[in-house]
Amino acid sequence: MRGYHLVNVTLHCLNAVLLAALMLTAGVPRSWSAVGAALFLVHPANVEAVVWISQLKSLLALCFALTALLLFRNRPIWAGLPFVLGLLSKASAAFALPFAAVMAWSWFRAGRDPRRHLLSLAFWAVALGLFAIPQLAATAAMGSAFVPEYPDLPSHIRTIFAIAARYFAMAFGYGTAAYHELEPSSIVDPWWWAGLCGGLLLSLRIDWTLRAGREEAAWWIAALAAFAPISQWLPFFFAMADRYLYFILPGLIGGALLFGVAVRESIRWDRLPVRIVAVLCVVVLGGLFATLSVVRSGMWNSDYRLLKDATRRYPNGGTASFTNALIAMKLGDSDEAIEKLREASGRNFYLVRSFEREPLLVPLFEDPRFEALMRDHARRRIELAEMNGITSQNQVRGLARAYFLLGEHDRAIELLEASAREGGPLHGQVLYDLVHMRAERAELKRNPSVE
User: How far apart are CA 292 and CA 150, in angstroms?
Assistant: First the structure.
């Protein structure tokens, strides 16, 4: 395991170096670029992306995207290869296309010949278009299976602005959580008002910098482009996550530093008190980020610490209900545990974590109320699959367990056999499930009373 974590940490450090280099080429002073890269390196929201072995795709995607943007300035033709590699690592690398397009616009306004860059951008656009066809289809199918309920279109729009505000707050270190559980935003939600006001201010700044041909606009637009896919305009189950900020932060950091470059003369940066205040702010923010990152990295060593963290952040969420059910079981209160599991189920938490695989809940397995809850989960999984189709082996495994729980043993095994023949990234897990289901079916046939 240490080798995998070492690879992630190394890539994250490389991304910080590439970000510093990109800011330098944009005109950010060397010391400022180092500070921006350091803040990105120790940012607490990035802990999730670096700690999760499965998030190697995010680290690679950002690495290739930043490499493409660095090459785009002077070697635009060569920049196409890392851009494509970034897309193949993770779709989030697509933010590099609008970033590069606005950079090219600023260079054109400065009098540079844009023809080579336009040719490169055309290649990027074609590559993204070809990639987007299967990607959007898969995302829509997967997301619609776990879509949150928005009462109406205004509520949906308000929630998008609220999520944007929460990510902006998270950029300053506030609001990180192991699991985020958001409710549709109401008209009185301060987060949506903050998002609306922030969006208007950012729009004004982008408009001014675009018209002025300033490269700062490219960084703000890059942040918006990175936010767009995870903004919930196309709803999916995990409405927010710390790791999603990984692609937004570079744009925010670079945009903020270029904004600082633009205004430093007006605040007389050469004055000693101004410099002292700036240095103190950087030291305090960097120290806070580093401290929070250390704390959060230790949290990922324990599954129950993650549950506790999410419960603290969202005390009324499905994670909190599930955690309270585990606490009730520790106290021997099965009635309370069942009630809390029902609450968690009502928030679709069973899609995040399988109740039947939790050791603390084993004493409930023979409880008719728990069995009824599991059968209800099984029926809901089947309904979702019938409505939206099956797009992954993980869904096949969950669907097979659902059919098996409802007594349709042959149907469950047929699904796993078909998935095993087709192959895929979870082939080993599929075979494991298949062997155990066949053995359990054989046991049930020998001893029907067990069922």
Answer: 33
pTM of structure:
0.86
Give the C-alpha distances (Å, rounded to integers) separating 284 from 137, 246, 278.
45, 21, 10
Q: d(Cα 158, Cα 184) in Å, to the nearest integer?
A: 8
Residue 288 burial (10 A CB sphere; 0-12, 13-18, 19+): middle
Q: What is the mean pLDDT of each run of 10 residues along the chain (451 residues)?
A: 87 97 95 95 94 92 97 92 95 95 89 84 93 71 52 90 96 91 90 96 95 94 95 80 95 95 72 72 88 88 85 89 92 92 87 82 90 90 77 81 89 89 83 89 75 53
Which run of H or E residues covers position 195?
Answer: helix 190-212
C-alpha to C-alpha distance for 314 and 238, rounded to whole angstroms: 14
Q: Which positions ≥6 away from 240 have C-beta within 8 Å?
A: 163, 166, 167, 180, 182, 230
Query: What DSSP line would sit under 251-277, residue for residue?
Result: HHHHHHHHHHHHHTTTTTTTSHHHHHH
Q: What span, in angstroms and rounded, lies between the C-alpha atoms of 234 and 395?
A: 20
Q: How far is CA 409 from the centre of its chain?
A: 36
CA distance 451 to 173: 51
Q: Which two tokens stand for residue 31?
A: 């010391």
b/e per residue 139-170 (b: at least 16 CB within 10 A): beebbbbebbebeeeebbbbbbbbbbbbbbeb
Distance from C-alpha of 255 to C-alpha of 216, rounded to nearest angstrom = 5
* Side-chain half-sphere exposure of 238, counting CA atoms within 13 A: 13
Distance CA 132, CA 372 (A): 41
